[in-house]
Amino acid sequence: MKVINLLSGPRNISTALMYSFAQRTDFVVLDEPFYGNYLQRATLANEHPMQDEIVNVLGAREKDVIDSIEKKAKEQHVFVKGMAHHILSENPRFLLNWQNVLLIRDPQKLILSFSKVITHPVLDDIGLKKSVALFEYLRQHGVTPLVLDSDELMKAPQPYLEKICHFLDVPFEEAMMQWSQGGIPEDGIWAQHWYKNVHTTTGFKQQQPKDLSVPEYLQSLLKEAQPFYNVLKPHVLKNNQYASDI
């Protein structure tokens, strides 16, 4: 059995991808299992909604999380939806045994969306810097991750999902394209604060703010984030909208 480990930034359509894999018959999905460890051990610039409750529910020991994931993977394929910056280890060798996928998004869109929940985010909150570090780490160890962009996904979701499944060596299932409104049982307890948009959907639906201009107080963050996005962008799997062209 395999572990597909999605390393995303927040507000990148990562929850929709988790919902998509949750519809499969051969996968169990896990929602941000390293979140408790991150909240307990990281130096945070901002308090997160339900911070103490999340630590209590998920626990805070990285080894326990890894052991739980690998135990599940002995019985069934596992799809882990996580944030890149939740991986705190400087030498995360456990990732070398998993199929890692980096999900990125134009930082302008990411920052605008994220700031609706965390008003004054900093670079470490949005995952792009850590995504680059993990990309380089994995590449240096001979397991270059698949890199996806949420904008590429939304051009034509089904062909892109078919391509993703091809690269991950799992069969595409039509069921991945739809889910029921209101969330899934695997949602983290933080869903009420972060998943309101996706809970209104029954499939992949572009959620774009009407005004894409980043306010002045977030311009410095955008300037910091853009170079990291630019490092990963050339490695993004392109969506040519034709599933046969893989």
What is the structure about, briefly put?
With 246 residues, this protein is of the alpha/beta class. It is built from eleven helices and five strands.
Written account of the structure:
The protein is an alpha/beta fold and 246 residues long. The protein has one domain: P-loop containing nucleotide triphosphate hydrolases (Rossmann fold, 3-Layer(aba) Sandwich). Helices cover 39% and strands 11% of the residues. It has helices at 14-22, 35-41, 51-58, 62-72, 107-114, 128-140, 150-155, 157-168, 191-194, 196-199, 219-232; strands at 3-8, 27-31, 77-83, 99-104, 146-149. A 5-stranded parallel beta sheet has the order 2-3-1-4-5, sandwiched between helices. The longest helix has 14 residues, at 219-232. The two termini are 24 Å apart. 37% of the residues are buried.
Mean pLDDT: 92
CATH architecture: 3-Layer(aba) Sandwich
The secondary-structure element order is: EHEHHHEEHHEHHHHH
Weakly predicted, low-confidence segments:
none
CATH class: Alpha Beta
Instruction: Give the fraction of residues assigned to helices.
Output: 25-40%
As laid out across the biggest beta sheet, the strand order is: 2-3-1-4-5
Task: State the CATH topology.
Answer: Rossmann fold
The count of DSSP E runs of length 2 or more, i.e. the number of strands, is: 5
Q: Total domains, how many?
A: 1
Cα distance spanning the termini = 24 Å
What is the strand content?
Answer: 5-15%
